[in-house]
């Protein structure tokens, strides 16, 4: 049985490092699925991406997948483990989808997660712990990401929260909400 893992937490909390650690332990063959869109004009963004790249083992394959995440999950076969970093970037890349298309995108993602024969590790940001964004696009992002993370969390085997320098296994301490 494949293992499906979700790792959530705030910015710079260590989510990606924890995911990389788990991927290394789970499998020899890891495909790192980078959902961020590179912007060579943004030095700070490029520095973040480089930091992630430099930390990964050289034998890991990296795919840049800003949009077609379900296609990659559907076409990958064992013996690979997919480390998808991050769901927040993927959601941001798809904010131009109308509500109906977005709902279909989520349904397709959840279906492919359920049926995939490979190990999956998702990294996702938690954005809803602060103030409500003052602008519509910020609220749309926060709401779509929060809803998707909630749905993924009820469908994976294990969910970890990385916060304050600690990793908490929510699957052991918590209870899944069955209404999603």
Automatic annotation (TrEMBL):
<comment type="function">
    <text>Catalyzes ATP-dependent phosphorylation of adenosylcobinamide and addition of GMP to adenosylcobinamide phosphate.</text>
</comment>
<keyword id="KW-0067">ATP-binding</keyword>
<comment type="pathway">
    <text>Cofactor biosynthesis; adenosylcobalamin biosynthesis; adenosylcobalamin from cob(II)yrinate a,c-diamide: step 6/7.</text>
</comment>
<protein>
    <recommendedName>
        <fullName>Adenosylcobinamide kinase</fullName>
        <ecNumber>2.7.1.156</ecNumber>
        <ecNumber>2.7.7.62</ecNumber>
    </recommendedName>
</protein>
<comment type="pathway">
    <text>Cofactor biosynthesis; adenosylcobalamin biosynthesis; adenosylcobalamin from cob(II)yrinate a,c-diamide: step 5/7.</text>
</comment>
<keyword id="KW-0169">Cobalamin biosynthesis</keyword>
<comment type="similarity">
    <text>Belongs to the CobU/CobP family.</text>
</comment>
<keyword id="KW-0418">Kinase</keyword>
<keyword id="KW-0342">GTP-binding</keyword>
<dbReference type="Pfam" id="PF02283">
    <property type="entry name" value="CobU"/>
</dbReference>
<dbReference type="InterPro" id="IPR027417">
    <property type="entry name" value="P-loop_NTPase"/>
</dbReference>
<dbReference type="InterPro" id="IPR003203">
    <property type="entry name" value="CobU/CobP"/>
</dbReference>
<keyword id="KW-0808">Transferase</keyword>
<keyword id="KW-0547">Nucleotide-binding</keyword>
